[in-house]
Amino acid sequence: MARVIAISNQKGGVGKTTTAINIASCIAASERRVLLIDMDPQANAGSGLGIYQNSELKSMYHVLVDDLPLLDVVQGTELTFLDVAPSSQDLSGAEIELVSTIGRESRLKDAIEPALAEYDFIIIDTPPTLGLVTVNALTAADSVLIPLQSEYYALEGLSQLLKTTSLIKKRLNPRLEREGILLTMYDRRNNLSQQVEKEIRKHFEGEVFKQVIPRNVKLSEAPSYGKPAILYDYSSLGSVAYIRVADEILSRYPNGKDVSISRKQVMRSVRIEDEGASLDG
After folding, report:
1. Which N-terminal residues, if any, form the signal peptide (predicted)?
2. Is residue 263 packed enough to be buried (19+ CB in 10 Å), middle (13-18) or exposed (0-12)?
3. DSSP state of 59
């Protein structure tokens, strides 16, 4: 039965989609079956893994609005154990189209149900809003992972997100918990990043991932090549950081302990037709 993790923060530019892509890819490289669901109309989670929008591509819009089975929109990726359910710009209109639909907050939860037995982890990338699409993601999730930028306004909007998750837990999804807070865009040369980290760890004691995600050129470049960091440049700081975050997540679950996300393991997880791929960008 899959563990469903939503990656959410209504503040844009915090590394949410980058986190969704790379955590999903690193877990998949450990030979766990992973589905990445792109619920952001910008569709960057799909394009960051080489799946691009076109008029014939069925997407999460069709799942939410037209009741198309989730598994009918799933696309394979370069990694054998990673699939993607892509988004499209049409999803931006879903909230209006679903406004009068009974059980509109649970559309994604109902759609995911048949896929739970097919995967070990389902990762949901959410839009930078707290609208109906995000509510659907949080209603479907077992936990929410919150990326938080290591800058002065890091806590801006976080209280509203925590309030929303508490409300959803109370009214729609009693099993929802916090997977953790992940500090992103961290610059060790900057005293401000260190101060923000100290405050966040103090305020959310025991809920912050040990590993932080650094600012990293390779991490920024990888999506433009349609690759996760571990395939674009395995040894880059960004790749290593997300491998460690994936290790933290996997270590929490019985079937995730003592896993390997080594370079050799990553190459073994690449699909046969893509075996010529390099791990050094």
Report:
1. none
2. middle
3. -
Nearest alpha-carbon partner for 111 in 178, 78, 65, 172: 65
The CA distance from 92 to 146, in Å, is: 22
Q: pLDDT, tens digit, for every residue of 69-109? A: 999 999 999 999 999 999 999 999 988 999 889 999 999 99
pLDDT band at 228 (very low <50, low <70, confident <90, very high): very high
What are the backbone dihedrals phi and psi of residue 260, each rounded to the nearest 5 degrees, phi first?
-120, 130
Asked if 139 and 104 count as a contact pair (C-beta separation under 8 A), the reply is no
Identify which of 257, 276, 39 has the alpha carbon closest to the alpha carbon of residue 141: 39
| 196, 183 Cβ separation under 8 angstroms | yes
| Closest to 93 in 3D by CA, of 127, 117, 68, 138 | 127
For the chain, the residue count is 281
pTM summary value = 0.93
Query: Is 37:24 a contact under the CB 8 Å cutoff?
Result: no
Strand partners, 180: 145
Q: What are phi and psi of 265, to 5 degrees?
A: -65, -40
What's the Rg (C-alpha) of the chain?
18
Q: What sign does the dihedral 180-183-184-188 (CA atoms) show?
A: negative
The sign of the torsion formed by the CA atoms of 63, 1, 211, 228 equals: negative
For the chain, domains (ranges, CATH) are 3-274 (3.40.50.300)
- CA–CA gap between residue 151 and residue 193 (Å, rounded): 6
Instruction: Provide the residue type at 255 as one letter.
Output: N
Q: Which amino acid is at 89?
A: Q
Burial 189-218 (b: 16+ CB within 10 A, else e): eeeebeebbeebeeebeeebbebbbbbbeb
Which residue has tokens 């014939």? 56
Q: How many whole angstroms from its chain centre is CA 128?
A: 13
